[in-house]
Design goal:
Layout: H1 2-31, H2 35-90, H3 98-134, H4 137-143, H5 148-191, E1 201-205, E2 208-212, E3 215-216, E4 219-228, E5 234-246, E6 252-259, E7 262-266, E8 274-278, E9 281-287, H6 305-315, H7 323-338, H8 342-357, H9 362-389, H10 395-419
Antiparallel strand pairs: 1-2, 2-4, 3-4, 4-5, 5-6, 5-7, 6-9, 7-8
Helix pairs in contact: 1-2, 2-3, 2-5, 3-5, 3-8, 3-9, 5-8, 6-7, 7-10, 8-10, 9-10
């Protein structure tokens, strides 16, 4: 510590000596009326001041990075534990091999990292800048002649670096992880189809619904199956006992061999009219695309931004593709940019916000405000996706509106600070 302090002291003394030397040279040039000499020493003097500003920028950047890493670790653990709990609900309790579970968790890491970075930027920057305000460090910077813009540039630069890192995870590693995750999950279900059926539960599969009784190994009791055909007619199948079997057919995950089933078929155009039939045995095939979405192709989540852009261009004038699907591709494309680059908008908001509330215990208030804003941003993003996918609203505005609101609010607060 003493060595580091002595080194910084020597550097400051060197800067002061050079400033004195260049001021003396400028005064000499002015005295002898030598404009080239005055121009030379003035340039050198400004370079020394820029060097001092560079030290300040590095100091702020290091503090921001430290707080970001701490908050990133916090959010990473939160989302990581949440992912493990989701896997525990669907995979772990079915006694899936440990190696497969570890692979599934590994394939989820890019999504967790990409999701954690923007929230860590907001909370970390608010805590860091709030501490600087509480400790009067920003007041000292201002008293020494430094402008808000210099500190703001450091905040923006760190926000940009974090956004680039998050974008790489979101655009390349996330699709790669999603593809491997779906492939591994498909292998697990194929090897043990009973994983997807849980005792005393209701399972939705696209247009079908399973009401499941008790599951014991490969045997299922009191199974009720609701289905709607392409013609719009409803179908209900009830079986007291059923057996789950593996399938060797491509695209089929499992088969259900039902014993003494009763089938009821209701016509959509005739209210109260239905047909019934019964048999000793009935085999029901469960296809991959009813459980794992887009198993026959590549889903938008499995594409990079470049692939999505090409896909959007290819289906733009294709009348066979519904507007809802086109908007889904557009929404996913904008999502690949809006979420990772949300760190920049969080950084824009964090700087003026921390100066406003950071005078008293800014670090604690930064943590509180950061978590509240993170929850609101997360909720706005989820709602935007729901309106975009189910409601068909414009994917660009659904994904970018939260960022634009944060950016507008941050710039407005920053301009008010500069007027003071």
């Amino acid at each position: 510590m003493k060595i580091l302090y002595a080194r910084k002291t020597r550097n400051l003394k060197k800067i002061k000596a050079r400033r004195f030397l260049f001021r003396a040279g400028y005064a000499l040039g002015k005295k002898i009326n030598s404009r080239p000499l005055m121009r030379f020493f003035s340039r050198q003097y400004f370079k020394v001041n820029a060097l001092g500003s560079g030290i300040l920028v590095k100091y702020i950047a290091k503090e921001l990075l430290l707080y970001f890493v701490v908050c990133f670790t916090f959010f990473f653990v939160v989302f990581f534990v949440n992912q493990i709990l989701l896997l525990a609900e669907t995979i772990l309790k079915k006694r899936v091999p440990l190696g497969s579970v570890i692979k599934l968790i590994t394939y989820c890491l890019p999504a967790i990292i990409a999701q954690s970075a923007p929230f860590a930027t907001l909370v970390g920057f608010l805590m860091c800048l709030g501490r600087l305000v509480t400790d009067n460090e920003l007041l000292i910077f201002r008293a020494s002649g430094q402008k808000y813009s210099l500190i703001f540039k450091s905040v923006l630069a760190m926000g940009m670096l974090i956004s680039i890192f998050s974008f790489i995870m979101n655009d390349y590693f996330l699709p790669l992880g999603t593809i491997n995750y779906n492939r591994m999950r498909r292998q697990i279900i194929t090897s043990n189809p009973a994983i997807e059926l849980e005792s005393m539960s209701i399972k939705r599969m696209n247009d079908s619904i399973f009401v499941i009784g008790k599951v014991n190994g490969t045997m299922v009791s009191d199974l009720v199956f609701f289905d709607t055909g392409n013609d719009g007619n409803a179908r209900v199948i009830v079986a007291k006992n059923s057996e789950i079997r593996k399938s060797s057919q491509d695209g089929v995950l499992m088969k259900l061999d039902m014993k003494n089933p009763i089938v009821m078929m209701m016509k959509n155009i005739q209210s109260g009219s239905y047909d019934t039939l019964s048999s000793e045995n009935l085999s029901l095939s469960i296809f991959e695309d009813s459980i794992i979405s887009s198993s026959g192709g590549v889903s938008p989540r499995e594409m990079t931004s470049w692939d999505l852009r090409k896909k959007i261009k290819s289906v733009r004038n294709d009348d066979t593709v519904s507007p809802k699907i086109k908007n889904t591709y557009k929404l996913e494309y904008n999502k690949k940019f809006s979420i990772p680059f949300g760190s920049i908008f969080f950084a824009i908001l964090a700087f003026p916000l921390s100066l406003i509330f950071g005078r008293k215990d800014g670090q604690t208030l930064g943590l509180i405000f950061g978590i509240i804003l993170s929850v609101l941003y997360w909720a706005a993003t989820i709602i935007g996706q729901m309106f975009g996918v189910k409601g068909g609203y414009n994917g660009f505005w659904m994904m970018w509106t939260p960022n634009l609101v944060l950016g507008f609010l941050g710039i407005l607060l920053y301009l008010r600070l500069r007027r003071k």
